Amino acid sequence: MAGLPVEPLLEIDGKNEEKVEDNNDIYINDNNKQSISKGALPVREESDQVGEREMALPPGSSIHRSGSRPQLDLSKAAIQGNPEERDPTILLPNQSDDISHLALDIGGSLIKLVYFSRHEDQSTDDTRKKTVKERLGISNGNRRSYPILGGRLHFVKFETSKINECLDFISSKQLHCSGIECHHWTSDSTANRNTVIKATGGGAFKFADLFKQRLGVSLDKEDEMDCLVAGANFLLKAIRHEAFTHMEGQKEFVQIDHNDLFPYLLVNIGSGVSMIKVDGDGKFQRVSGTNVGGGTYWGLGRLLTKCKSFDELLELSQKGDNSTIDMLVGDIYGGMDYSKIGLSASTIASSFGKAISDNKELKDYRPEDISLSLLRMISYNIGQISYLNALRFGLKRIFFGGFFIRGHAYTMDTISFAVQFWSKGDAQAMFLRHEGFLGALGAFMSYEKHGLDDLRVHQLVERFPMGAPYTGGKIHGPPLGDLNEKISWMEKFVLKGTEITAPVPMAPPGTTGLGGFEVPSSKGGTLRSDASALNVGVLHLVPSLDVFPLLADPKMYEPNTVDLSDHNELEYWFMVLSEQLPDLVDKAVASEGGTDDAKRRGDAFARAFSAHLARLMEEPAAYGKLGLANLLELREECLREFHFVDAYRSIKQRENEASLAVLPDLLVELDRMSEEARLLTLIEGVLAANIFDWGSRACVDLYHKGTIIEIYTMSRNKMQRPWRVDDFDLFKERMLGSGGKKPPPHKRALLFVDNSGADIVLGMLPLARELLRRGTEVVLVANSLPAINDVTAMELPDIVAEAAKHCDILRRAAEAGGLIVDAMVNTLDSCKENSASVPLMVVENGCGSPCIDLRQVSSELAAAAKDADLIILEGMGRSLHTNFNARFKCDALKLAMVKNQRLAEKLIKGKIYDCVCRYEAAQVEWL
Ligand SMILES: CC(C)(COP(=O)(O)O)[C@@H](O)C(=O)NCCC(=O)O
Ligand SMILES: [Mn+2]
Questions:
Q1: Ligand 1 pocket, 881 CB below 6 A?
Q2: What is the pLDDT of residues 236-258, one digit of tens each?
Q3: Which of 573, 900, 915 for mutating ligand 1's site (highest number of atoms within 8 Å of CB)?
Q4: What are the φ/ψ torsions at residue 311 (nearest 5 degrees)?
Q5: pLDDT for residue 111 is more than 80
Q6: Which range is the signal sequence, renumbered to this chain (predicted)?
Q7: pLDDT > 90: what percent of the chain?
Q8: Is the separation of the CB atoms in 872 and 856 below 8 Å?
Q9: Which of 81, 643, 759, 904 can pair with 689 through a Cys bridge, CB separation 3.0 to 4.6 Å?
Q10: What is the DSSP string of 20-31?
Q11: 628: Cβ below 6 Å to ligand 1?
């Protein structure tokens, strides 16, 4: 879940709305020792008191709005329709977030929509960016020109019986007009006379006239098989956590090697079933099918149980016991297994077979049992025929898609069991997270020059904004995102609440040997009627993202250290994040002036994030493979979704000011030291200053006990080697050499910085200065968007410029790196050498999270990495929660203070406030 883009807010208010109706051992040491290596720096005046950290933003402070944030252009906004209406639709004709493509798959029961919204390329006048680009040799000419430069793919579905709601939705969002046409709203459907929309599925024929009449658009019919295959190929190549296995209630994502994808069998289970052998893009053959499919289950089920909807029928099956109606092996063999041929007593010998001998009528059977019997009969049958076809063509992988599955755990388990059983484990059934959207995606792919074919996994970021994907419902509000609508949607969403969001207890998976499952085991009580609604996010297309080139083995790289598929871990982190929520909301609301609007947004944010947490507790793999980094990023994304730009802005400012005030003294003390003592003091300084972490509850409790500088001093005084992980001597040898041999300096170091205040100013900047002084170019790598109190790339140049006022080394390097211009700096430093300096640069990392997924970084970081031979990752988020186990092609130093007791125990068998200094040399010779 890494990456830059921020989801614009959707005003979607669909079916969901309809439902609405209805220990630490650290103490403050206040004796101010005068030695800098273990001492206290001067305590600043009263205004540094922690109690004042939460002061409101000073008048005139500007709020940084990220360039990647979609802004609403309200010019020429007009009310559409009757202005007297309570919530009239407001049209934003100049909104740049225009829609260029829409594609549809109109099936018998559901209409699936895939639509694309585009951003203008965010050109910027940022001088830092320009100089960095020049320095790093990034030219726009190197990059291919994408028709899609930053945009998003949305996935939405409607019931076909409610096609008018679908048409309203398309109309309200103007999805049927592209580009320039969008800017000229008219209610006259003739204006779109020449517009053609790609569509597949039988409804593309059936409803063509209705589309013409209501929207004035023509449907360009695309072949259903072509679309299914194109959609599946795109998903399997472009989305990291798309395919998964599902066995005995356990969902496991499968890493698909793009170079080894074909051939495979695609089984699409709609009303009927198609089995397609796929050999490549556009290369496929429908090899088989069966008329016993989703339509059969629904049709027979409706007749036999009087259920009103497919989902109701499916939900019934959850409580069913098919042994009351199916004839089992044990029924024939007097309760015994037929072990000679490997059949257990519970194996279904004949679906519905008991009905022939029982002297019973339909009314004597429970609808729940009928539904389960039907479901098992059809799923096993499909699984078996699929396997036989895979066998026919020597295919090992079978992907199942189509809306029959609709994320239903028991259906997937049953199909998987059949494939496993008949293939004796040789073939594997896999499922797709976007199972229902294959056709619509394929239809979308059939537009020419959309640029999607060339996008790679690392250029796609999936986000899960609240309320985005939905089925049906009334359309309210303006055609483009409206925060107010979203907030009220959240309010109602949670009022209805528990059914959608509360965790469902997981029943332990149970089987009874070869015969299969006794009763549905994968889920407890109820099937969510919006089962797939929260599993499919909005797909952001970000061509500027790259894989970090210094990863030793990108294919094996896993950013997360903490895997939340372990239920105990998930429960623990769920509790941590839930407990932090009230305080975070307070900070976020205060950062926006504490207005009523901010309070309402804060409340909606808390509801939305809690709903995500509850959803993930219920199904940890709902959004793809879940690690701790994903949860922490989700929290930041959620804040942005409700327009909280930077919740810790004022805290960051205060901590920067306090730290900058004591920096000159620190530099003077450092310069008095020997090279060796200085290096150790610098590393100690980084570790000590990493204590300023507003994401850690233990640390936040600590901040109430002293001023910034007191805490910093105390933290430094606690620095005792050996640290829990202590490779300092190895690092020192690489830096200073041994036995009279002096190693060459590193050419370029990438310093992945963490928190604002002391962490950056008194920790990482002095370390950067040491590297610069030794002739190593330094690139400070900082977040693109705010996350907790982390310093951002946008904020760093000002901090560096301020620090450079007291230090010639930093000043010359910052000038060489284009961070500051001469005139800005009033030098006070005594050492005035005029020689040219190696540069100090700042690049953004491409993320807005306290952690970093190095598979998706900014192109400027990727460019900076090309000449780098040292990377330093700092902080818990970047070097412990993520990347602790990452291996690099260059030397790597991981520095962090562990500010969580449980993590300390689990990761380093230590305790809270222990430190990590992990050094791993590149596998190349420097001597
Ligand atoms: C969010 C963080 C990873 C940030 O740590 P940092 O990278 O700033 O060192 C960390 O504060 C964290 O894991 N906090 C949650 C756990 C806790 O409150 O102990
Ligand atoms: Mn941090």
A1: yes
A2: 998 889 999 999 888 999 988 88
A3: 900
A4: -65, -35
A5: yes
A6: none
A7: 55
A8: no
A9: 759
A10: HH----------
A11: no
Note the pLDDT of residue 160.
87
428 CA distance to ligand 2 centroid (A)? 42
CA–CA dist 111, 206 (Å, integer): 12
Contacts of 11 (CB under 8 A, 6+ apart): 476, 477, 478, 479, 480, 481, 482, 485, 486
Q: Which is the closest atom of ligand 1 to the Cα of 692? A: 8
Q: Which amino acid is at 441?
A: L
Residue 339's pLDDT is 73
Looking at the chain, the whole-number percentage of residues with pLDDT higher than 70 is 75
| Segment 401-458, tens digit of pLDDT | 987 888 888 899 999 999 998 899 899 899 999 988 999 999 999 987 666 777 788 8
Ligand 1 contact via 697 beta carbon (within 6 Å) = yes
Pocket test residue of 584, 652, 693, 753 for ligand 1, highest count of atoms within 8 A of CB: 693
Report whether residue 759 contacts ligand 1, using a CB cutoff of 6 Å: no
CB neighbours of residue 391 within 10 Å = 15
Assess whether the C-beta atom of 332 lies below 6 angstroms from ligand 1: no
CB-ligand 1 contact for 850 (6 Å cutoff)? yes
Q: Residue 33: which pLDDT band, with cuts at 50, 70 and 90?
A: very low
In short, whether 696's Cβ falls inside 6 Å of ligand 1 is: yes
User: Quick one: CA dihedral 596, 602, 606, 607, positive or negative?
Assistant: positive
- Tell me whether residue 250 is exposed, middle or buried, using C-beta atoms within 10 angstroms of its C-beta: 0 to 12, 13 to 18, 19 or more: middle
Name the region of 273 (left: φ>0; alpha: ψ -120 to 50; beta: rest): beta
Ligand with smallest separation from the Cα of 696: 1
Q: What is the mean pLDDT of residues 752-778?
A: 98
pLDDT number for residue 117: 81
Q: Which of 899, 913, 914 has most ligand 1 atoms within 8 Å of CB, for mutation? A: 899
Average pLDDT over residues 370-380: 95
Q: Given this model, what pLDDT does residue 500 score?
A: 38
Nearest atom in ligand 1 to 900's CA: 19
566 burial via Cβ count (<10 Å: 0-12, 13-18, 19+): exposed
R_g over Cα of the chain: 30
Q: Are 545 and 857 in contact (CB under 8 A)?
A: yes
In the reported structure, the alpha carbon of residue 173 is separated from the centroid of ligand 2 by a whole-number distance in angstroms of: 39
Q: Is the pLDDT of residue 509 over 70?
A: no
Query: Taking each helix axis from N to C terminus, what angle separates 765-773 and 675-689, rounded to the nearest 10 degrees?
Result: 150
Distance CA 658, CA 653 (A): 9
Atom of ligand 1 nearest to the CA of 896: 9
Distance 703 CA to ligand 2 centre (A): 15
Pocket test for ligand 1, best of 561, 876, 914 (most atoms within 8 A of CB): 876
Distance 786 CA to ligand 2 centre (A): 10
Minimum-distance ligand to the CA of 756? 2
Q: How many CA atoms lie within 13 A of 871 on its CB side?
A: 27
Strands (E), 676-818: 725-726, 748-752, 777-782
Contact 916, 723 (CB under 8 A): yes
Of 786, 788, 819, 785, residue with least CA distance to 804 = 819
Which atom of ligand 1 lies nearest, measured to the CA of 902?
Answer: 19
- Identify whether the C-beta of residue 843 lies closer than 8 Å to the C-beta of residue 781: yes
User: In the predicted model, what is the mean pLDDT of the chain?
Assistant: 80
Pocket mutation for ligand 1, best pick of 696, 873, 880 (most atoms within 8 Å of C-beta): 696
CB proximity list for 186: less than 8 A, separation 6 or greater = none
CA of 912 to the centre of ligand 1 (A): 12
